[in-house]
Amino acid sequence: MSGSVPFYQKHHRHYDRGYRYQSGSRYTAGTSSSSSSTRGLDWSSPSGLDKSRLNPLPKRAKPSYLAVDKENHIIGYVVPLFRSSQDFATGYSDAEETRLRNTSSHMERRDLFTSGLEMERSEQVSRKEAMRESAERISLNKTIHEHEEHFKRMNEDSLMHAPEFVIKPRSHTVWEKQCVRLHCTVSGWPDPRVVWYKNNVAIDPLTNAGKYKIESKYSVHSLEINRCDFDDTAQYRVSAMNSKGELSAFASVVVKRFRGEVDECLPAPRRTSFKDGPVSEYGINFQTHIVDKFGVSFGREGETMSLGCTVIINPPLHRYQPEVHWYRDDVLLSPSKWTHMHWSGDRATLTLTHLNKEDEGLYTLRVTTKSGYETYSAYVFVRDADAEVEGAPGAPLDVGCLDANKDYIIVTWKQPAVDGGNSILGYFVDRCEVGTNHWIQCNDTPVKFARFPVTGLVEGRSYIFRVRAVNKSGMSRPSRVSEPVAAMDPADRARMRGTSAPWTGQIIVTEEEPAEGIVPGRPRALQVTEATKNYVVLSWKPPGEKGLEGVMYYVEKCVSGTDTWQRVNTEIPVKSPRFALFDLAEGNSYCFRVRCCNSAGVGEPSDPTEATTVGDKLDTPAAPSKVVPTRNTATSVVVSWEASHDAQELVGYYIEASIVGSNIWEPCNNKPVNATRFICHGLMTGEKYVFRVRALNAAGLSHFSQESEAVEVKAAIASPAPPFGITVLECVRDSMVLAWKQPAFIGGADITGYFVDYRDVIDGVPGKWHEANIRAISDRAYRVTDLKENRKYQFQVRAANIAGVGIPSLPSDTFLCEEWTIAVPGPPHDLELREVRCDSMTLLWKPPVYQGRDPVNGFYIDIKEAEAPEEAWRGINTKATENTFFKVKNLKEGETYVFRVRAQNQAGVGKTSDISEAVQALTKPGTKEIVVDVDDDGNISLNFECGNLTPDSKFLWSKNYEDISDSSRLTVETKGNKSKVTFSSPGEEDIGIYSCLVSHTDGASSSYTISQEELKRLLEISHDHKFPTIPLKSDLAVEMLEKGRVRFWLQADQISANGKVDYVFNDNLVSQGEKYKMNFDKNTGVIEMIMESLTPADEGTFTFQMQDGKATNQSSLVLIGDVFKDLQKESEFQRKEWFRKQGPHFIEYLGYEVTPECCVMLKCKVGNIKKETSALWYKDGREIKADEHLGFTEGVLKLEIAQISKKDAGVYEVVLKDDRGKDTSALNLTDQGFKDLMNEVFDYIANSSTPLKITSTDEGIRLYTFVSYYNDLLPVTWHYKDSAIAFCDRLKSGVVGDQLWLQITEPTEKDMGKYAIEFSDGKGGLRRTVELSGQAYDDAFAEFKRLKAAAIAERNRARVAGGLPDVVTIQEGKALNLTCNISGDPVPEVTWLKNEKGLTSDEHCILKFESGKFASFTVTAVNTSDTGKYSILVKNKYGTESADFTLEVTEGTPDLGVTSYWTDSEGNVVFGPNTPKEKQSGITAMKMQRTKVEKTLKDHRETQKSEEEDNFIDTVTVEPKNSEEKDDVEENTKLK
After folding, report:
1. Pairing state between β 1439-1450 and 1367-1371
2. Confidence at residue 792, expressed as pLDDT on a 0 to 100 scale
3. Which of 721, 1148, 1449, 1505 could form a disulfide with 1165 if both were Cys (CB 3.0 to 4.6 A apart)?
4. Is the dihedral of CA 604, 609, 611, 614 positive or negative?
5. Mean pLDDT score, 466-486
6. How far apart are CA 189 and CA 153, in angstroms?
7. How far is CA 58 from the centre of its chain?
């Protein structure tokens, strides 16, 4: 076969036949290398037809169909449909044999007659037959599927099984822009869930709309890829999963491109390597940059960690997504529950959701575009989680399954690096069936070997495993669980998984037709592959014969030295050529052999193995040697060692580190490394470490290697990078002054000097380089001499440190050597930025070498944003500064700036300097400032601390940004990361700006300005520290304590525990004793001295003297004269008070309060009361009330005086007493005390008064107000026009109940004006006013006139002034005389009536009206006929009134006496002088009722009064019978 075979076809056995008639291509049917003949067609054979291939019944072969183009280049292949298992069992059908014969005969005729038409017709027939067979197979599969579904419904519990591919997806090779469809048929119960993957990444049809289409119907699942392009070339996986397990099948899709399809105007893709730069894909060069990278990371088990990088791709294309892959230890990572990957458009992120030690390793991000790829790597370390039991070991890791069969699974793991300080005794293995959360421990005793066979499994079920380590302290945390593994025969597992090809598209399929009725031969190459004390694993090769039907195996064992063979698997033979034996006696030797069997019978046994002794044959590895540490970075060291000798099945190495002298070893890695070199990260800079290594395999860990030599952790030293920015500062006829910038990387050590080279350039052609200096120069400026005038030169500079001389810089620009004659100065140089903060930074520079015609007298600084155009330059200072430094302020935080400097002299402003480096205005985390401090001795110092020191860092102090020349004025002291400058004798010479720069850092620097004012302040603080005083929060004071004790105290603001106090009285020290109690609380600074009491001898001066180191202070208190006497009295009083309060006592002494009802309440608060305590109330020494059996411990006693008057004045006293003592409280309510009390009562009355109002009476106009309570002692004054009213007959005032009034009789217009009533309460008083004028006066005057007229009519109307009794009862025969008073003007007419009829005067009934005033009714001899109702009716022009009485006559003995009586004006019965006393009792009289006219007038007045005064309440007062009774009532009322 001509032409080269692509890499993805080198191992393929089958190729697709779908493109055999494409134009411009031809096909070659290749044959296998077997000596037997195969059917196929070789178009390249010149001989035409091979007769050996015309056999109508050839043997089955494995044809491969290749598609080639005109140049014999293979361009594709296809894979035929896989045959079902029935084809292997039954052989070819008759239709297929006919098709083969027809095809063979047709090939012969085609070669003889070259008839293309017949060839095509034959192919069509073959295709139809193939399609018919395919339809029959599909129909059969459908029938089988329906039968299975029916059986599942009938008995679904017994038939639950893991997913199984009935038809697996097949691989395809297609052309670009074609569609391809992958489909498969999956069985399983419950119904599996099917997911499609591309290169192990789940396919989401919604993410790529229109690209993918996924369908599932009747257990047939398909993936359709629309319009394939070259990126669709991949390995596709379909995964089916249910509760019983998971199974995957693979298929490859290869997308080919037609030659000539690409537009000729586009450049062809480059197929070379990336070493010459990025590959151009159709004219686009993608440049990939990975920035914002993640560094070496440290995590702990159980935590979540995210690694991310920002990816910049130029040119940026809309919606272009590169291929982003993550690797761990060069193994591609796939999305899982442990790892989540995300691409946001410009940032790639990997999230480790739950860290385990398996996640430790080197993580690599690979970003691939059409033009190349870019990678970045960093290491991730995972430490053990905190042990649940102190001292327990770490969890094992990398739990997996070494071998799995239907009744056992061999579990493997790796030992942890941390044993908890005690040797690990062994490991426990736990298992859990997939779909449950029930963990079962598999071994009762711990195993030391890192492999363990788990038995007792249920065939067909899937399991996960975990391992725990144990030492004498306890159990470790469980490891991460293993991947699920099914317990089944490996042959069944291989059949379920199917054969799959890598993504390259390689498909390997065997179609051997089994031979029937043949007993298999002997197995070959039987050997013991693994032997431990727990199990032995055998492996062998199948018998040499091919095509045998259903070969299985029996395993037999025999104890060495005997010929008795015992079959191990007696029940079910195994299908795979691998078997593990258990339950072997440890220490015994065994031989093993295997027999093949099938349906034809059991074959001969294999050759037995050699005697194998049961036991752990694998030894722990030897300890590594020659551990060599090497400096790497400031926090890492490279450790290398020599591998363990003769180590078997080596797993890796663990490295441990320890700080020299600590004897504490910490693991550097928690996951074994396979190499003999490892970078240990996370070390402390500047510390010295030693290292040791040990190896491990399944048998255990080796001994530790010998400790390495100590190595200090700091960055390795390298030669510096090249300088840059070479410029000319001055030029004369034969020399030039050059300046350059320090290299960005100095190699980890200070630059010791620079070397300058130069060469001349003639007509653009540079010459040879010449050394300008032999000895290194320390400055970044140098004068190159011995040059030729008007000659052009180029220069290069090399930097040197202790590691050597670095590579030279790039050649500078070409400079002409000619003398400068300009008048202005040259450019300043060596710009440097320090003290970078978020809003300021300090710029330093060096003055120009070339001064110009006159000396330089100032500098100007320009600034602009780094990204701004040249037009954005602007000046900072309008006035030139003479200094070579300048602090730039008011910067915008986060903005990046560049600067330049210009020098000036009298001739003008010179050239600008080179632009400074771009610096961002940002305060770096951890930035410190210089702090001024004055110590206890008064020494003034400047202190600076730097947190990111390196081992080579130095603190460089300067004054005004120049080296400090006079070291006698200050001393510099540096310890660790702190440096201090101490002034020897501060003075005006020390005024200036002091700055500190820390070398070998990221620019850590700060400055502090000591001005004239600041120096003065510091000197004052220094003086206070040299001659210190103890500050006091409070001076010495005195206060009174309970029981009359006196406390002298003060509080110091700052005093140490070593402070001392002396107590002085009148210049004499006093000490602790009965009289003085001293106390010094050093935590609060309170110093106190307590005296039980004061005596006259204690008068004088008290002083507290304090001393604390050098600091002293004292405070005094003078107690003499009245001050001392008052304090002594207060002490005695407090002492008495303390004793008083031991029994019942007054908490608040007797006092009073006035209630809103104007009652006076005497009250006192008492305490320490018990049931036996009594409270007695006295007034003027007379007991008035007693309270006994008080039901409270502390409460209030009260005495209420309801209506206070003058007789209530007196001295009130309360006495508390019981068996513990008594206490007395008195209240003097006489004279001024009573006056003050009444003033308070008056204040309540005044404030209760209503606004002054106007009303009218028949006599005139009345002004009135109401109060809630009136007291006879209330002083009231009426005012008219702000003057007190002189009362007369026409102006009167009075009180009716709670109404205070002023009556103006017969008012006139002169009475108009402002009236007021003033209440006096001993303070400011209260005044109520009313304006009697205008409409108010008119209305009141009119009402007065009306009432006056009504009063006259009422006064002159006819009326019965003296009433008659209501009922008169008299004995028959007696005489009756009744007389009543009659009034009225004019004299009224009098008429008598009996039973409503008129009555005339006669002898029996005599009626008289005398003097116009008296009307009499006389009956001479009363008889029963006189009984009846009698009335008198009086009448004049103003009115009429009547009076009635009823006469009742009783039978009796006639009496000669005359009964004569009448009623007075009040209704009392008055008997005549001739009426006997015994007769008076027989007369009954009742008070006469008022007439309707009187009642009508009274109701009218009350209604008018109620309308005018809402708050008026008419009260009825019942007078006592006599004065004594009245006094008793008043007294009881007051004391209630």
Report:
1. parallel
2. 94
3. 1148
4. negative
5. 93
6. 10
7. 79
Rounded Cα gap, residues 744 and 751, in angstroms: 11
**What average pLDDT does the structure give for the chain?**
81
- The two structure tokens encoding residue 1027: 């001659």
Q: Using the Cα atoms of residue 945, residue 949, residue 954 and residue 957 in order, give the sign of their dihedral.
A: negative
Phi, psi at residue 500, to the nearest 5°? -125, 160
As beta bridge partners, residue 655 has 693
DSSP 8-state secondary structure symbol assigned to residue 764: T
Helices 94-113 & 116-154, crossing angle to 10 degrees?
A: 160
The structure tokens listed for 1536 are: 């209630």
Q: Are 1006 and 993 in contact (CB under 8 A)?
A: no
Comparing C-alpha atoms, which of 348, 331, 307, 200 is closest to residue 671? 331
Confidence band, pLDDT 50/70/90 cuts, at residue 1364: confident
User: And the tokens for 950?
Assistant: 């390196």
Distance CA 1429, CA 1367 (A): 9
Instruction: Report d(CA 1222, CA 1141) in Å as an integer.
Output: 10
Which residues does 975 contact at the CB level (< 8 Å), separation at least 6? none
187 within 8 A of 163, measured Cβ to Cβ: yes
Q: Which two tokens stand for residue 393?
A: 């070991």
For residue 860, give the nearest of 849, 875, 847 by alpha carbon: 875
- Three-state secondary structure call for residue 622: coil
Residue matched to tokens 């015609």:
853
Is residue 349 predicted with pLDDT exceeding 50? yes
Say yes or no to pLDDT of 1488 above 50: no
d(CA 858, CA 868): 27
DSSP string, 205-245: TTTTTTTEEEEEETTEEEEEE-S--GGG-EEEEEEEEETTE
Output DSSP code: residue 989.
Answer: G
Look up tokens 């790796």; give the residue. Answer: 414
Residue 1009 confidence (pLDDT): 94
- Tokens (6 digits) for 1227: 């209240």
3-state secondary structure of 1375: coil
Quick one: DSSP state of residue 54? G
The distance of Cα 1103 from the centroid of its chain, to the nearest Å, equals 57
CA distance 1055 to 1116: 18
Long-range CB contact pairs, 1348-1353, < 8 A, 24+: 1348/1258, 1348/1259, 1350/1258, 1351/1258, 1351/1259, 1353/1438, 1353/1439
Q: Are 350 and 340 in contact (CB under 8 A)?
A: yes
Which sign, positive or negative, has the C-alpha torsion 441, 446, 447, 451?
positive
Instruction: Determine the residue type at 460.
Output: G
The one-letter amino acid code at 1510 reads D
Mean pLDDT confidence for 1349-1375:
84
Contact 1015, 991 (CB under 8 A): yes
Peptide bond into 720 cis (omega under 30): no
Token pair in block for residue 989: 């010479």
Q: Quick one: average pLDDT of 813-819?
A: 92
**Single-letter amino acid code for the residue at 1133:** F
DSSP element (H, E) containing 120: helix 116-154
Strand duo 612-613 + 601-605: pairing: unpaired
The DSSP H or E segment spanning 600 is none
Q: How far is CA 1361 from CA 1081, 1261, 1379, 1434, in A?
A: 99, 29, 11, 11
Using DSSP's 3-state secondary structure scheme, residue 1361 falls into coil
Minimal CA–CA distance to 61: which of 95, 100, 94, 89?
A: 100
Nearest to 946 by CA among 982, 976, 922: 976
Q: What is the CA radius of gyration of the chain?
A: 64
Tell me, what amino acid is at 1125? K
Nearest to 1310 by CA among 1278, 1339, 1343, 1281: 1281
Q: How high is the pLDDT of residue 791?
A: 92
Q: Is the pTM of this model over 0.85?
A: no
Going by C-alpha positions, the residue among 987, 983, 980 that lies closest to residue 939 is 983
Three-class DSSP category at 588: coil
Q: Is residue 1496 predicted with pLDDT exceeding 60?
A: no
